[in-house]
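pls design
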């Protein structure tokens, strides 16, 4: 315990990739150090924990430095469960509304990093052990819409790719960048006025329709696939909660000024899944519609991953409900949706036990922290969703290249489900 004894905890306000303030925490042990910062979403789920206390980030920073730090100093950084349990105890609510989930997560991750550093181990290995040797595939975001791009962009939030034929992360990410470049050209051929703008995650933000975006993506994938020989499959994040009008019970197509009923939304999803051979569809319907999710799993789940993000919000009890209803076959893991590393692990464990594939994920407002690269390997998630371009995204890809190099003699690419490999 001597080397992992927590001696100091310190918080400060820093900024994320959208220029919004967030919290960064540093934890020092006798022989180690960890620093972590929390990202933020734009299309947040209603069941996510509350990110900051009522007084905002300044209050969160003050709370850590004047109250929480004293309680954590003297604890063992290697006892993650005890630290995370204490954070819940200090907060005393079921949604971290008192201290903030962003506050809790920055402390939780900084403690894990400090423990790993005390043992002179990389974070992924500290978390996952000697057999955490599988490299995830990137789920690259090529074209953006919804809340991540302007009003004239597509309704669908993310047009995604997975280079399932890649033999390494380095190859996989290179293929993603190539598809991104080709998609930029394809967009320009649809919209001559396209000026090369990009949304929050580095995906192209263009004044084109959903169908045009899907066509541009398909075209770009075909080209890169035939040039590189690497198989690439397509997906989307509909982020349907952002389109849902709960009073009128319709999905609003902001771009066209039209609406879709719940049945029309389901039919549309099935139609584009077929037409574009989509292998991955995230949040196809809104976050309370477990039944709509179930209907999609029943009709296309054998050939397409139906992934819950806002539906589950990395929350083990919502995941259990989803399992009972067979509402998905994959899920997004966003640690800041739930507030601590232990809670995120609980979500991964619950999901895997029920046969759901976990996808480790960033947020649209990211920080300079690379912890999700380590969690993807440590928690054995076959996919990592971390956008595409921009320093705050690329640094996560680069960290996976370093992890892959460190595991050179033992690594293998993650095993993918049949929906992606068929
Ligand atoms: P967010 O969106 O980080 O803006 O909430 C990402 C997603 O929906 O996957
Ligand atoms: Zn999502």
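designed seq:
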């Amino acid at each position: 315990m001597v080397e992992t004894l927590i001696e100091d905890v310190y918080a400060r306000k820093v900024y994320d990739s959208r220029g919004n303030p967030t919290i960064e925490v540093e934890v020092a042990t006798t022989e180690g150090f960890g620093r972590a910062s929390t990202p933020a979403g734009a299309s947040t789920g209603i069941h996510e924990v509350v990110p900051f206390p009522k007084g905002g980030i300044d209050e969160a920073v003050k709370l850590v430095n004047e109250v929480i730090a004293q309680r954590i100093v003297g604890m063992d950084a290697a006892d993650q469960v005890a630290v995370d349990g204490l954070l819940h105890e200090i907060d005393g609510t079921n949604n971290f509304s008192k201290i903030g989930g962003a506050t809790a997560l920055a402390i939780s991750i900084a403690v894990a990093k400090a423990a790993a550093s005390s043992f002179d181990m990389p974070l992924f290995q500290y978390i996952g052990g000697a057999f955490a040797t599988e490299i995830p595939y990137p789920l690259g975001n090529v074209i953006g819409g919804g809340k991540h791009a302007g009003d004239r962009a597509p309704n669908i939030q993310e047009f995604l790719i997975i280079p399932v034929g890649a033999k390494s992360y380095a190859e996989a990410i290179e293929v993603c960048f190539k598809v991104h470049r080709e998609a930029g050209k394809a967009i320009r051929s649809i919209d001559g006025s396209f000026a090369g703008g990009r949304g929050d995650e580095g995906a192209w933000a263009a004044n084109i329709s959903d169908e045009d975006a899907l066509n541009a993506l398909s075209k770009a994938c075909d080209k890169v696939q035939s040039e590189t020989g690497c198989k690439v499959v397509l997906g989307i994040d509909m982020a349907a909660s952002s389109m849902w009008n709960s009073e009128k019970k319709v999905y609003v197509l902001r771009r066209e000024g039209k609406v879709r009923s719940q049945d029309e939304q389901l039919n549309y999803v099935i139609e584009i899944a077929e037409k574009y051979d989509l292998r991955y569809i995230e949040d196809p319907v809104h976050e309370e519609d477990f039944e709509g999710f179930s209907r999609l799993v029943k009709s296309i789940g054998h050939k397409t991953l139906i992934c819950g993000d806002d539906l589950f919000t990395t929350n083990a009890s919502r995941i259990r409900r989803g399992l009972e209803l067979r509402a998905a076959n994959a899920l997004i893991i966003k640690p800041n949706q739930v507030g601590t590393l232990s809670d995120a692990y609980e979500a991964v464990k619950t999901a895997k036990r029920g046969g759901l594939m976990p996808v480790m994920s960033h947020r649209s407002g990211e920080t300079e922290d690379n912890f999700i690269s380590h969690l993807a390997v440590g928690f054995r998630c076959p996919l990592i969703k971390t956008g595409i371009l921009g320093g705050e995204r690329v640094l996560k890809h680069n960290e996976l290249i370093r992890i892959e190099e460190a595991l050179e003699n033992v690594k293998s690419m993650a095993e993918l489900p049949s929906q992606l490999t068929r």
